[in-house]
Design goal:
Length: 126
């Protein structure tokens, strides 16, 4: 049974930093591409960042470039999202997702991801 479990969300003030974690089990972690997505109230789920199976390729959405960093630890089967300089518009439920991929590439399309976590709430106050 594949499981993705996010943790690390919370209520923060603007300008603060937060690190989200996503522990993955039930699959061969090292051959899966991983992504972080978020969904704010009334909005569609959107891509935040992604990392290839090797970690050699990363991609970020424009609103978070320079502030967020995605990384993975294949020994711990965990993917991280370091979020710095948080803004109120970063408020959303954050989801991690996994996709089996042969090539070392990152997809920004949420429809390409096979497995999803339940999400963790991040709230940023001004």
């Amino acid at each position: 049974q594949v499981q993705l479990v996010e943790s690390g969300g919370g209520l923060m003030q603007a300008g603060a930093s937060l690190r989200l974690s996503c522990a993955v089990s039930g699959l061969t972690f090292s051959i899966y591409e991983l992504g972080w997505f978020r969904q704010a109230p009334g909005k569609e789920r959107e891509f935040v960042g992604g990392i290839s199976r090797s970690g050699g390729s990363v991609a970020y959405a424009e609103p978070v470039k320079g502030r967020f960093t995605i990384s993975r630890d294949n020994a711990r089967n965990t993917v991280y999202l370091q979020m710095n300089s948080l803004l109120p518009e970063d408020t959303a439920i954050y989801y991690c997702a996994a996709r089996y991929r042969i090539s070392d590439y990152v997809s920004v399309d949420r429809n390409n991801y096979e497995y999803w976590g339940q999400g963790t709430q991040v709230t940023v106050s001004s």
